[in-house]
Amino acid sequence: MPAPFATVWRAFEAWALPPACLGCDAQASPDALLCPPCGALLRPAPSVPVPGLLALGAAVHVAFRYDAASAPLLTRYKFHEDLAAGRSLAALSLPVFRDAPRPQALVPVPLHRRRLRERGHDQALGLARDWGRALGLPVLVDALHRERETRPQTELDARERHRNLEAAFRARSGLPAHVALVDDVLTTGSTAAAAVRTLKAAGVARVDVWVVAQAPAPGNGDHRAP
Fold it and tell me: Is 0.90 surpassed by the pTM of this model?
């Protein structure tokens, strides 16, 4: 389909078949894919320090609370390959990252190849690409590599988390001095901390952390990230 015709066709589809809200099936904005009332249910995240990241000098920027409004969208995106939910979350959270200190590039937290085959998509990479496109930032897909598969951090105690992530990541050389590490949900912060340490060991001077939502650590809240 020629590019000009495709553009006209997409505009016609948006007019003739307006998108349904992911929350309630009412008419939604083509950009956010949520109607205004459902979008308003996504509450800004409070500033909750993550000791492991603070110790590494990593600034954490979080868009939303992990709660009854955001959790279903994140679950649909992460585990059910609902890419519309991911685009919606990326669009709605964009103002937080537009106001954050500007990094030179975005680095998604990588999935292990087996986990990627199971899910069919990489949720952190999808968010990074949406934010990078909107903010004019490059996405460094090959900056971090997942060396081995790890168990979910929420199943482990503090000592096991550290052992679980030992040598989990490898970073390439020649990275920019300031990058933002991208993921969907921050819970214990152990995975992000391991990635930050790896990037800094590779020569990155400053690593910020950008996530859609911050979930309570295990045992500290009703809406726990899976």
Answer: no
